[in-house]
Amino acid sequence: MSYQVLARKWRPRKFAELVGQEHVVRALTNALDTGRMHHAYLFTGTRGVGKTTIARIFAKSLNCERGESADPCGECAVCTAVDEGRFVDLLEIDAASNTGVDDVREVIENAQYAPSRGRFKVYLVDEVHMLSKPAFNALLKTLEEPPPHVKFLLATTDPQKLPVTVLSRCLKFNLKRLLPEQIAGQMRHILGAENIAYEDAAIEELARGADGSLRDGLSLLDQAIAYGGGALHADDVRTMLGSVARGQVLGVLDALADGDGARLLAECAQIASYSPDFGGVLDDLASVLHRLQLIQLIPGYRLDEEGADGEALHALAARIAPEDVQLYYQIAIGGRRDLALAPDARTGFEMALLRMLAFRPGDEAPRPEAERTAPASRSAAPPARSAAPPAPAYRAAPVAAPAPAVRESAPAPTPAAPPRDANGLPHWESLIEQAGLRGPFSVLAQNAVLRERDGNTLVLALQPAHMGMAVEPMVSQMEERISQALGERIRLRFVDIDKAAVAATPAARATQARNAAQSAAEQSIEDDPFVQSMKRDFGARVVPQSVKPFGS
Predict the structure, then answer these.
(1) What is the maximum span of the chain, computed from C-alpha positions, in angstroms?
(2) Residue 379 — very low, low, confident or very high, per pLDDT cuts 50/70/90?
(3) End-to-end alpha carbon distance in the chain
(4) Please, which pLDDT band fits residue 101 given cuts at 50, 70 and 90?
(5) How many angstroms separate the CA atoms of 443 and 441, rounded?
(6) Residue spans with biased composition (Low complexity) (predicted)?
(7) For residue 462, what are the β-bridge partners?
(8) 427: helix, strand or coil
(9) DSSP at 530
(10) DSSP labels, 15-43
(11) What's the CA gap between 22 and 37, in Å, rounded?
């Protein structure tokens, strides 16, 4: 007997065997058990998620010789014929190759006749969106009021192309993309039944490569078994898919955390030696960054990974600042989008990583090697500067610790304490600037007002819209930076701001200043004699949006 591919051999024959799509199975099961069955169903979703399979199982449930049931026997002549694709009352029509109105008229004429063998004549129209407009128009009346022995089951990957008149005549079920965990679980079940040895890492690679489609995943599984000579090894699967191991992606992030450009390029070269899909590598990088952010911002979050990879992720989460993770993620997905515009894929990949290195936030980001080794004419730094210790991962304000002099001139003066107001409180805007609050820290601080000081606690009145940002670890990192600026240990407590105090926030004052500058600029243009003459003589008008203040 010839070999049957896994996607066909393991195609579900009952609703209970389906992977995912519980919302569709529940609705159809209840309809069959209660006898409340519609005459037309539309199944939508991406390829390989079960549209045609569900339609076949539904047709089998309608015509099973042991009665209508959500659990067909699978043994009678009708069930066997449906499984083998030879049941005469199940008519499968490929709308991609039968698009014309004449094909639909033939369906309409045959629908009038009673089923030959079963209780219902079931029309399964696959890729129904490919029908022509006249074909849809010819089908509408029969689709709305078919004979009692006819059921229409329509399947499509592109429901937006269907006329609303067709959509309104059908019960619509949107089939979801399968999760990698669901695909991996089905693969393990199949491999166990087939007595094929496998590695869990190989299954995870294939599940991610399936991109939500179980059929695609099983096709990749067939290919991987053939590639591995009857076994499934992670290295073989990565070579076949053009992907890289998780450890190599972690090596890239480790080099970024250290600000080591040479090691970063070495990691790129090692990845390139596998001839991978560089777009997929950037996707993997974005996925790891997502997990790092979950570890940093979600208390008690537990990773799926265990062992060395899990420990490495926790270590990186402690070394890379949360705002850096956000920046790296944006650069990764932007680089993924721009790969097609690069001279070649490797160049685009390397430039994305170098962009992460070059645009690290904060004042303590690593300087380019050329600048660190600049000649004396450009910098008074002695040669020993290149041996300075690396900047800390979070780049907090420097603590008071002895450090070797890096310039011949006088050492940098200690930052002056921020000015204080009449109540003895630090001037909030000056403190924000001196503490070096940037990115999300700046957004949080600019929308707050320093209300009072309670011991070593600064009480900040914050706008309710930004209260969701006042969470760990942002608050503790903000406390650390403010403590460095004030020279004492400070805690922060956030309370809701009064409506009257909203105008006193730095953000509100900055907005008022911008509006005032804009109004002054517009008025200056209106008062200009030349503009007035153009308006008077030619009916000209000033477009307010085109006027910008100097320096904006």
Answers:
(1) 100
(2) very low
(3) 77
(4) confident
(5) 5
(6) 373-411
(7) 448, 496
(8) coil
(9) H
(10) GGG--S-HHHHHHHHHHHHHT---SEEEE
(11) 18
**For the segment 461-510, what is each residue's pLDDT rounded down to a tens digit?**
888 877 777 888 878 888 888 888 888 888 888 888 877 677 778 888 88
| pTM (predicted TM-score) | 0.58
Two tokens, residue 77: 């002549």
- H helices, E strands: number in the chain: 23, 8
* Other residues' Cβ atoms within 10 Å of the Cβ of residue 408: 9
Q: What tokens appear for 459 in the block?
A: 């009480």
CB 18 within 8 A of CB 118: no
Q: Which residues contact 35 (CB under 8 A, 6 or more apart)?
A: 68
What is d(CA 369, CA 354) in angstroms, rounded to the nearest whole number? 13
For β-strands 171-174 and 40-44, DSSP reports them as parallel
| Token code pair at residue 6 | 């896994």
Query: Does 413 have pLDDT greater than 60?
Result: no
Give the angle 245-308-316 at the CA atoms, nearest 5°.
85
Which CA distances in Å does 393 have to 249, 293, 361, 396?
18, 15, 11, 8
For 386-396, give one letter per residue: b (16+ CB within 10 A) or e: eeeeebebbbb
DSSP state of 487: T
- CA dist 34 and 36 (Å) reads 6
- Is the CB of residue 100 less than 8 Å from the CB of residue 59? no
Hey, CA dihedral for 308, 309, 313, 319, is it positive or negative? positive
Cβ neighbours of 50 (radius 10 Å): 26
**Looking at the predicted structure, is the pLDDT value of residue 521 above 70?**
yes
Cα 256 to Cα 147: distance, rounded to the nearest angstrom: 67
* Helix pair 200-209, 180-194: axis angle to 10 deg: 130
Does the bond joining 473 to the residue before it have cis omega, within 30 degrees of 0? Answer: yes
Cβ–Cβ < 8 Å for 304, 288: no
